[in-house]
Structures are given as C-alpha cells and as structure tokens.
Specification:
Layout (H helix, E strand, L loop, with lengths): L1 H16 L8 H22 L10 H22 L3 H4 L7 E8 L6 H9 L8 E7 L32 H16 L3 E8 L3 E2 L3 H9 L16 E4 L7 H5 L24 E3 H9 L4 H4 L15 H9 L4 E3 L3 E3 L19 H8 L9 E3 L6 H6 L1 H5 L3
Parallel strand pairs: 1-2, 1-3, 5-7, 8-9
Antiparallel strand pairs: 3-6, 4-9
Helix pairs in contact: 3-6, 6-9
Length: 380
C-alpha cells in the first residue's frame, strides 16, 4: 500500500511538472504594439506639439554684436561733425527702405514703379533686403532697384514666433546706419506689403517739405511711427509667454507694450535699437507658450516706449486687417478684392497721418495692382 501510494504520488508529481505553462499576457500586447508602431510614427507629428526652434547661435550673436557696435561707433563720430555739412544741398536726407523676406519679392515690379516713377527721387532713398539664406529654392534677385548689392550679406535664417525676426530687423537697421549717414528715416516692410501712395507723397509727409526747407530738416525733431499698445486684452498672456515673471526686472508688466511688426523709425531711435543690450537679453529668450509668442511685435514698442515715449507717434503707417485673422496671420487680400475702392479704404486712418502701406497681399494681386498703379495708387 505504501509503495502504491508513493508510486501514485510520484506519477502525479511528474505529470504536474511537465504540463504546458499558460500563455503569457505580454505576447499579444507586444504584437499589438508592433502593429501600432507605424500608426504612431504617422500620427505623432499631427498630435504632439512641434519641437522648440533652435535658439540664436552664439556665432550669429557675436557677428550681430560686432555689426551693431560698428554702427553705433560710426554714429557717435557722425554726431560730432559740424552740422553745416549736413545741411548742404548735396546731402538731402534719405529714407532707408528695409525689406524683410523669406520668399521672392513678389511685388518688386510695383515697388520699382514706386521708386522710379519720378527720376528726381532717386537720391532720396536707399534700399536694403534681408533675405533668409536657407529658403529653398533660393530667393530670386529681381534686378532694377533691387539689385544684388541691396541684399545684405549678414542675413540669417528667420523663424516665426522667435526673436530671429527682431534680429533681422536690427541687422537691416545697422546696415542702413553704416551705409549712408544721410539715411534719416528707416522704414521696415515685408514681401507682402504694397505702397498706397507715391514716394514723393511719403517723403513730403515724413519730412514736412511743404512747411520746411530741406536745409532746415536736420535741426527738426521728428517722431517715429511705431504702434504702441498698452491695453490689449491679450497683453498679459504675451508678457508671460516665456514664463511667469521671466521679463523681470528689466521689463515690468506695466512697461510691456504691443504693436505692429512694421514701422518707420527716426535715425535717433534706430541707433537706440541697435545699441540696446538690456532688453534684448530678455526678448531673445524662447517662449514656452507658442500661441502667445510674437517677439517682433513687442520688442520695438516696449523699448521705444520705455526710452522715449514722447518721440513716438504711437501708431504705424502700415495698414493691417485683423478682422478675420487665422493662426496669428492677418487677413490676406486676394485678386478679386483688389479695386481702387480698396486702395482708398486702406489709406484711411484715425490718426493724424493716413496709412502709407498695407499688408497682407497674395502674389496673385500683382497684375491688377500694376494696372491701377499710375491712375490710382501713385496719384495722390
């Protein structure tokens, strides 16, 4: 009986030891994961937020700093020269037009007409183009007044929602300061901007030539045309776009301003912009909230409001329609919308000066704009 029992027990034990193990729950999960991986790779870019853009590189920062120092040093030497030379008939004040672009200059034929319609104006302006060197295909050089030497060699890549747009504008300003001491106003426009008046009308408006003699212009105090807004409902979010209280102590909330990306600055304020280091170290920081990150719309209004509020008009000369903006972009005008009535409407302003330029226009608008250039746009 004992043997039988032992044998039975042994047999039972052996039978149990060699039974098949239950299937692991990890196996179907692994198979499912492998099947899902292609879908994850496809959907991830559409679900996850985009990676933050790379910061402005140290070599680029050093190159900019060198350019800005040369501009401010030259300006300090110029201001010490006798004013009699500045009032001579051979040194009429000029307007520096600065084009900021990352595509072809779609409206270059219209701007060409703007600058060359009156041959007597050719000594009253200078042109500078900051073209993103990384754009593919490469930006085409239109020729004419937009010759190759008007494209600045210090241009760098620009990215929306980053301080690279501030840096690009500062490079343009510094280049224009160095290039010609007679540049007295500095107007920033984009590849999607168009003129609303003739060059002569714009020049007369800035320099008040109907009231003052050209020889007297250098002694007059002019204002910059830059939008400065302090009561926008989104201003708190914009202020904290880099994180709460990150702008302190350089910029308190009550000092923070909003405004248009495009402006017309006096030479005095242009020097102030390229000589700034204090506010730049804050505005160059990356944002943690992309939906509130528009550094180029804050840096210039904040800096000039803090340093010389009485020297600014508080409004811009470039009309922008924000009534139906999409993803931070203003209304884009398309070919069917172009008419003489639109031009007259865009000129109207609630300020002491009407709008001189307007954006944002689709490249398809060029033909109808050229057709009405002489009879409407440049007929003041």
């Amino acid at each position: 009986m004992m043997i039988s029992s032992s044998s039975s027990s042994s047999s039972s034990s052996c039978s149990y030891s060699y039974s098949s193990p239950p299937p692991s729950p990890l196996i179907p999960a692994t198979i499912l994961l492998l099947l899902c991986l292609p879908a994850l790779f496809y959907l991830a870019p559409h679900i996850l937020p985009p990676p933050p853009p790379p910061p402005i590189s140290f070599p680029d920062e050093l190159q900019d700093l060198s350019l800005f120092r040369r501009a401010t040093t030259l300006e300090s030497h110029q201001t010490n020269k006798p004013k009699s030379r500045l009032g001579s008939t051979n040194s009429k004040p000029k307007i520096a037009f600065m084009f900021l672009t990352n595509t072809d200059l779609h409206f270059s034929p219209l701007w060409e007409r703007f600058f060359t319609a009156n041959k007597s104006n050719r000594h009253l302006y200078t042109l500078y183009v900051h073209a993103d060197p990384t754009v593919n295909p490469k930006i085409k050089i239109p020729g004419g007044v937009f010759s190759e030497d008007r494209f600045i060699t210090t241009a760098k890549q620009t990215r929306r929602g980053t301080a690279t747009l501030i840096a690009a504008a500062r490079r343009l300003i510094a280049t224009a300061l160095l290039d010609n001491p007679n540049n007295q106003f500095f107007t920033l426009v984009s590849q999607y901007c168009i003129p609303l008046y003739s060059f002569s009308y714009f020049y007369e408006t800035l320099f008040q030539t109907k009231t003052h003699q050209v020889a007297e212009l250098r002694d007059l105090k002019y204002k910059s045309f830059v939008q400065i807004v302090s009561d926008d409902p989104y201003i708190w979010d914009r202020y904290n776009a880099r994180g709460k209280n990150v702008m302190l102590p350089e910029v308190r909330f009550d000092q923070f301003r909003m405004g248009s990306q495009f402006f017309t600055l006096t030479r005095k304020h242009s020097v102030l912009v390229v000589s700034d280091r204090r506010l730049w170290k804050k505005f160059r920081l990356d944002c943690i909230k992309a939906s509130s990150c528009y550094p180029e719309e804050h840096y210039f209004p904040t800096l000039l409001s803090m340093e010389d509020p009485n020297g600014c008009s508080g409004y811009t000369l470039t009309h922008v329609n924000w009534t139906d903006s999409v993803d931070g972009h203003p209304h884009t005008y398309y070919r069917p919308e172009v008419s003489k009535e639109l031009i007259y409407e865009l000129r109207r302003s609630n300020f002491s000066n009407g709008y001189m330029f307007a954006r944002k226009f689709d490249p398809g608008c060029l033909e109808p704009l050229m057709n009405m250039a002489d009879e409407v746009i440049f007929r003041d």
